[in-house]
Amino acid sequence: MSLRQLPKIQALQIDGLTWEAPVSALAKWPAEIRAADTEGESIINIYGVIGADFWGDGITAASVAATLRQIGNKPVTVSINSPGGDMFEGIAIYNLLRQHPAEVTVKIVGYAASAASVIAMAGDNVLIARSGFLMIHNAWVCACGDRHYFTEIAAMLEPFDAAMADVYASRSGQDKDAIAAMMDAETWIGGVAAIEQGFADDYLPADQVTAEPEEAAAQSAARRLDLVLAKAGLPRSERRSLMKDFRGTPGAAASAMPGAGDLVADLRSVIATLKS
């Protein structure tokens, strides 16, 4: 290799270490998933297609895993505006975020569709723009063959749809059959509906309406209680169900299952203590 053919080298300072790499390699690094540290907040931006495309672009599980390793055991915010893409990459990214040892906050700034909506469900706290959207649907595949082959393809896709429905149901607390019906219909869920149906916890800060002091304190206490229950090992679906009972009337909670009234009363006592 002649000197004229040598690649141009650019030095980077990362965590006090110097890293030298060809400029051509840096140009190919997917900037949309690079971790940004803003005032102590580690941010991963998922702005694009999930999974590598023909040209090598897109968000992959490998690149997200590398970014999480760089962040370490610190809270992370994942900002999403994506049409979706590869379901397997989406599920892998979802599981990487679920396994992250610190709190994960997901912010849906535009839309999280298809595989991106699966990733959004990984947040311990999911915030959505009032004008934002989630879109959930069944898995897609391109196939070519006779009717017998297509029957086999339809059967093959069933467990994939069931896996995604389980993710949505676990996060939202909704019945899995109801979620499956929404996926069959390819459902677009706006910001307001996403919060009402349990897919998201609140609006993005810019869209949040200032609450009365008592209401704001109760919301904060409820979120803290949810984190306490999560750390205690209570599954997300059970936490969602309990929080829904808490927000409802004691009579309705008590009629839902034997002993529920006492449990909800205990939860109210814990939240009152957290508020004090």
UniProtKB/TrEMBL annotation:
SUPFAM superfamilies: ClpP/crotonase. The keyword Hydrolase applies. Keywords: Cytoplasm, Hydrolase, Protease, Serine protease. The keyword Nucleus does not apply. Coiled coil: none annotated. It comes from the Bacteria. One of its GO terms (molecular function) is serine-type endopeptidase activity. InterPro entries: ClpP, ClpP/crotonase-like_dom_sf, ClpP/TepA. It holds the Pfam family CLP_protease. One of its GO terms (biological process) is protein quality control for misfolded or incompletely synthesized proteins. Transmembrane segments: none annotated. GO terms for cellular component: endopeptidase Clp complex. Belongs to the peptidase S14 family. This is ATP-dependent Clp protease proteolytic subunit. The lineage of its organism: Bacteria, Pseudomonadati, Pseudomonadota, Alphaproteobacteria, Rhodospirillales.
